[in-house]
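From the pipeline queue, job 12 of 40. The input is one protein chain; the requested action is below.

Action: predict structure.
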Amino acid sequence: MTIRDILFTLCRRMKIIVIFPVIVVTLYSYWNYTTQMPTYSSSAVLYTIDKSSTNLSEIAMVERLMVNYKLLAQTSEMRELVSISLGESISDTGVSVSIDTTNHTMTIHTQNRNPAKAANVANVYAATIINYLKDTMGLTNITFLEEARVPSSPTGPLREKPIMMAGIISTVVGIAVVFIIEYANTTIRTSEDITKNFNLPILAEIGKYTKGKKK
């Protein structure tokens, strides 16, 4: 198949190439905006070294303990304690913990469809960790550095990029469908088809008759 044949096929089946992506993008956009609710993110930051501490050995020890702090923060027991402190379940809230040993900070990241709850869970989670380490281990080297704030705009879900990808993929699929239809269609439409498929010469052709036109 030559480039001319490819272009001719695409032009002749342009409706499929255009309509198929439009339908797919429309349906996907409707699903995305009606079922995928916006989510809000918030973060509370803890400082893991007592600000009055200048002992290098203590600082080095805390840096090693920060990994354990992170593991502790991610346990189901800690989630239960936070739920008790809040007076409600946090099963609808995504919680992740990250540490920065360079700046000696631990950050509680939360995600929820309710922006106020996202911030509230982050702050209560951080306070629960501080109280737990103080009450059970006598550690006082963790303090609030930055409280979580109520987010003003959603951080998810992503909408534009998936919709754009749906358009690109559906266009490629539409073009593939066009060529599948063409290869599956054995109808002889032109004299070139006879020459190409049967290797026979063309002896004569019947011209196209247009009604009302004199020859």
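Job complete. The two ends are 36 Å apart (CA to CA).
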